[in-house]
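Self-study notes.
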Amino acid sequence: MCYILHIANEFTACGHQVVFRRQRIDCNSNACVLSNQHRIGHHDCHSTCRQSLMREQTWTSGRLLRPCDACYRSGNFSTPA
């Protein structure tokens, strides 16, 4: 099934993950109504094709050794020992 992928950075000084990109991932299945590969010919779509997105997923693309911007502005973070 198709799904939404959140791409995030993890900030080790405060522990937050901040999503900086959101992308729809196509499952490329002809039996998924949301896919670009969904069959276009006559078929019983409601009973044979998936009708919804799979649960959203998050991928951490990087770990930054600092607080996120919100914590940095508020001073709400601890410095590593």
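Second protein, same conventions, sequence then structure:
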Amino acid sequence: MAKATAKNTASNGLLTQATQHCKAYREYMHKQYGATAQTAYNSYLFTREDLMRILYDASGEKDGIRIYIGFEDAGKGPLVRLYAVPCRQQGAQYHDAIEPIDARQGTGAQRTSAVASTDTVRSGRPCPSQCGGANMLNS
């Protein structure tokens, strides 16, 4: 029972931290760019289908997902963009299962069947537009 309580306390601490960070981001975007809840993205939805497509594609099962953070200057301030890519575990490390830079630059590296196709990368669905109900992280 003590183990479950410690886990719940840690989860609550992370939720509290996430709430603070999300609020700070919204306040920063408003102060710097005049962004409102209707103009600034505050979350991204990745559906089960998106996640399954990332983890189980034609190149085989993957061991994890890494989220990359991008940026788009949309004229009224920056929009954060998230990109989810599949990863394979090698020992204690997780490596992106996307084509290595040297393979794209033609330096002789070969793409292997363990590398996911670019169809596997997902950008998620931004909120506003794909939003859930009001909660601690988005209000």
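Instructor comment on the second fold: The first strand starts at residue 43 and ends at 45.
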